[in-house]
Amino acid sequence: MDNLIGKKLDGLYEVRELIGSGGMANVYKAVMLGHNGPVPAGTVVAVKVLRQEYMHDPDLVRRFKNESKAISLLNHPNIVKVYDVSVNDDLQYIVMEYVDGMTLREYLNQRGGRLTNRETVHFISQILKALEHAHANGVVHRDIKPQNIMLLDNGQLRMMDFGIARISRAENQLLSGKAMGSVHYISPEQAKGDETDCTSDIYSVGVMMYEMLSGHLPFDADDMVEVAIKQISDQPKSLHEIAPEVPNALVEITEKAMAKLPQNRYASAREMLDALDTYVHNPSVMFEYKYITEDAPEKVVKRTMNQNRANRQAEKPAPCGKKAAPRQKKRTIFLPALFGITIAFALACLALCWMILNDSSNLMNNKADITLGDYIGMTQDEAAATEQVVSGQISVTWEQEYNSNYAAGYIYKQSPVSGRTVREGQNVTLTVSLGTQYVTVPDLTNYVQADAEQQLKELGVSVLVTQAVDTSVASGAVIRTDPAAGSQVAAGSTVVMYISRPQVATTTKVPSLTGMSTADARTLLVQNHLGLGSQTEQYSDQPVGTVISQNPAAGSTTKLNGRVNIVVSAGPEPAPEPEAPSDSTTGGDWWSGLFGSGSSSSSTETGTEQGTAGSGDPSQKPLTDWWSSLLS
């Protein structure tokens, strides 16, 4: 048994049970005692304790202290809260928020390893918000993976296990040269043991996003070293190939996060969050990111989906045919093609003339170049009162859309963007936020899961499915939602949907075995998902080999596959054997009782006298005299 179970740590935390075990520490469920601690008495907490065998390993102790120092700096709704840290020579532990939920890995497995686009954006956004906070406090996680992220019933994530986190500013060189973290999610520079920064975390997030969208890890192998080598040198299969239905924008975001060179990734978690927000508001957006190549950093390569598609088409060989037939085909196609080219050329000339005339008109009007101002964050009235709008330097087209990140009435998007040089009179489109869009959660009770999910997704909310037991609702149908039906929720938020599942029996009633043979009792127990336990014998008036009692008793409830002990009859108890006669009723006393107390002595005396007198052998006397002397 674990020697910490039942112990009180510093008199503040009573350890109840072991709930997890990691590479260098164990995690226990504990309860806060007293009223002088960091949380109210009775609060359930998680206590992470460094294992005893590592107490004298300076590297592991330093890592544990790093974690203590790192997470004590952090306070964010998507990061597990830390209540207390105790580091001394005898025991080192961290007291954290107890999160009752499943890991993101367990959720992925439950969903078949793949999530919807909306779920992926929902979860990745929360992870990035947690990292934005951690990075702002100088903490790089360095071990981001689904196993280190907890999922609550309300769809909120909690990032945990900063076991190899590094304080990036003060200890920049301490952990360089060591490839730490889960090999399927570590960045190439981390796999090589090079120095890492926040972009390493961005890479790990990209790997998770790739896995969520496709259901596959980008790199996998039986040998962990081989996986690390692939992280360094190989390119993963394109998401377009293994998940062609994923939108181009999400593919581009994933590719940029997973770029081999750190300088090609998003520079910060906020930058990646902004890209996801752009996708949410315009799923058809094309980012057309530019990348620095490793061989020639001064060159940039434009990697857009259109170019990739054009390249694939260019690689297709032209079809071949017989020599005579193509000549006729070319002759028949050439004239229409030439006619089309002529028309296109004429149209181009007309367009060029129009542009020349238009430019001449602009020159005659003497319109000046101006630099567009920044209108994002202004109200519509404030933007309308600016000099460029009032003076007519620009004309404005107003649009309105819902946006939960900006209050109603504020401009959150402009096109062309600020800082661009345009000709006076340029039309600028300014989009004003209508605020957060709220939708009403419908009553989906007893709906089939697929139909209920579809309804919620059409409302623009994310759906988190969990299972529960409710005998009044058919299996696979909706029990309830959280928030409940009729509630107002923001578009893009998460609604938890509880789906009925069959109740799994864990107990059974113990049948009566009395009067059965041992073989029949065993058969009946197996039919009731039980087993036969110990067998003892006892004398009884029941036939030999029949059951006369049992434990647990008949009719009681016990766990499935439990054991039932029986007592078997050994038959009636045998009768006691007669006792042997004692010394007082055997031998000479028996004879004395039969013939009288003095006969022996008389005989002896007679014999003595006869012998003394020398009268001869008594056998020589008459028979009657001999019996007389014997019986007198």
UniProtKB/TrEMBL annotation:
PASTA domain sequence ranges: 366-434, 435-501, 504-570
Gene3D superfamilies the UniProt entry points to: 3.30.10.20, Phosphorylase Kinase, domain 1 (3.30.200.20), Transferase(Phosphotransferase) domain 1 (1.10.510.10)
Xref: SUPFAM superfamilies: Protein kinase-like (PK-like)
Keyword Chaperone appears in the UniProt entry: no
GO function terms (MF aspect): ATP binding; protein serine/threonine kinase activity
Residue ranges with Polar residues bias: 617-632
Positions bound to ATP: K48
Transmembrane helix keyword on record: yes
Domain Protein kinase, residue spans: 13-280
A Pfam family matched in the record: Pkinase
EC number(s) on file: 2.7.11.1
Catalytic activity: L-seryl-[protein] + ATP = O-phospho-L-seryl-[protein] + ADP + H(+); L-threonyl-[protein] + ATP = O-phospho-L-threonyl-[protein] + ADP + H(+)
TM regions (residue ranges): 333-357
Biased composition (Low complexity): 587-616
Region of interest (Disordered), ranges: 568-632
InterPro entries per the UniProt record, alphabetical: Kinase-like_dom_sf (IPR011009), PASTA_dom (IPR005543), Prot_kinase_dom (IPR000719), Protein_kinase_ATP_BS (IPR017441), Ser/Thr_kinase_AS (IPR008271)
Record keywords: ATP-binding, Kinase, Membrane, Nucleotide-binding, Repeat, Serine/threonine-protein kinase, Transferase, Transmembrane, Transmembrane helix
Protein name: non-specific serine/threonine protein kinase
Source organism of the structure: Faecalibacterium taiwanense
